[in-house]
Amino acid sequence: MKPSKFWEFFDTQAAPLLAHREKTFRQIFTYLDSLNGPVRIVETGCARLKGNWAGDGQSTVLFDQYINLRDSESTCITVDINEISVRACRELVSQRTKVIQQDSVQFLSNLVKEYTANNQTISFLYLDSFDLDMNYWQPSAIHHLKELTIAIRALNSDSLVVVDDCPATADFILNENNTVNFITRPRVGGKGRLVAEFADAVGANCLFAQYQAGWTNLV
Ligand SMILES: C[S@@+](CC[C@H](N)C(=O)[O-])C[C@H]1O[C@@H](n2cnc3c(N)ncnc32)[C@H](O)[C@@H]1O
Questions:
Q1: How far is the CA of 176 from the centre of ligand 1 (A)?
Q2: Residue of 82, 99, 132 best suited for mutating to test ligand 1, as the one with most atoms within 8 Å of CB
Q3: CB crowding 139-150: b at 16 or more within 10 Å, else e
Q4: From the CB of 147, is ligand 1 less than 6 Å away?
Q5: Looking at the predicted structure, is the pLDDT value of residue 172 above 90?
Q6: How confident is the model over 66-117, as pLDDT tens digits?
Q7: CB within 8 A of 48, min separation 6: which ones?
Q8: Is 56's C-beta closer than 6 angstroms to any atom of ligand 1?
Q9: What is the CA radius of gyration of the chain?
Q10: Separation CA 48–CA 50 (nearest Å)
């Protein structure tokens, strides 16, 4: 299923502004197109500033456009702890996208119970909550691993999980002449660093690992 009106919107209005996320958002929607039937999108960390395409990514605006232009049954639900973000996001999306104010881990815990009770699974889980401090990445990476830990019960092998803000990291030796010798390969860093370690450990299928990192086959 290729919703041509969505792709027209994406190519003309979003792609030129998305900068380092353009290619991976394109991969995300291409993947969603390959799934049959309605899709269920669940996001942590909603769009909080109108027009902030290159900065945050305007993810919720994109997901809202996608479900509206794909079919009448696909859903999008996003959670954010911050009242101001939630209020701003509600101004940016249609009524079909539910914007909930709560801590994401608590929210996912309840959502997963509801989904499993109804035999439903998440088609696409987008993790972009707890802001990243590059010098102290651990709290953010731990929070995103917690989100995956709870949500995994509502995933199936085709579910796509994407983490935003994952600039690559590597260990290196700084030489006297200021050149560097890499002593590890570059790997997923930032918000997705621990999710990536988990994904590697369970043999998940990595679709892309750039500024955003995405996997299927996590279960
Ligand atoms: C980077 S922004 C999300 C950007 C958005 N996905 C976009 O593309 O425009 C991160 C958001 O996560 C929210 N957040 C931080 N900690 C959270 C938590 N524990 N639970 C839910 N949301 C949280 C912040 O309030 C903020 O609005």
A1: 41
A2: 82
A3: ebbebbbbbbeb
A4: no
A5: yes
A6: 999 999 999 999 999 999 999 999 999 999 999 999 999 999 999 999 999 9
A7: 56, 80, 82, 84, 85, 88, 89
A8: yes
A9: 17
A10: 7
Q: What does the pLDDT look like over 27-43, one tens digit per residue?
A: 999 999 999 999 999 99
Contact in structure between 127 and 163 (CB atoms under 8 Å): yes
Q: Which fold has domain 4-216?
A: Rossmann fold (3.40.50)
What ranges in 78-118 are assigned the alpha helix state H?
83-92, 104-117
Residue with tokens 């291409």: 30
85 lines ligand 1 (CB under 6 A): yes
Any atom of ligand 1 within 6 Å of the Cβ of 140: no
Q: What are phi and psi of 19, to 5 degrees?
A: 50, -125
Residue 88 structure tokens = 């701003």
132 lines ligand 1 (CB under 6 A): no
Listed in sequence order, the residues at least 6 apart from 132 whose beta carbon sits closer than 8 Å to its beta carbon are 140, 165, 190, 191
What is the rounded CA–CA span in Å between residue 102 and residue 198? Answer: 25
Report angle CA 86, 90, 95 to the nearest 5 degrees.
Answer: 135
The CA distance from 5 to 37, in Å, is 17
Q: Are strands 205-209 and 213-216 parallel, antiparallel or unpaired?
A: antiparallel
The residue with tokens 């539910």 is 98
Contacts (Cβ under 8 Å, ≥6 apart) of 42: 76, 77, 78, 108, 111, 122, 124, 125, 126, 151
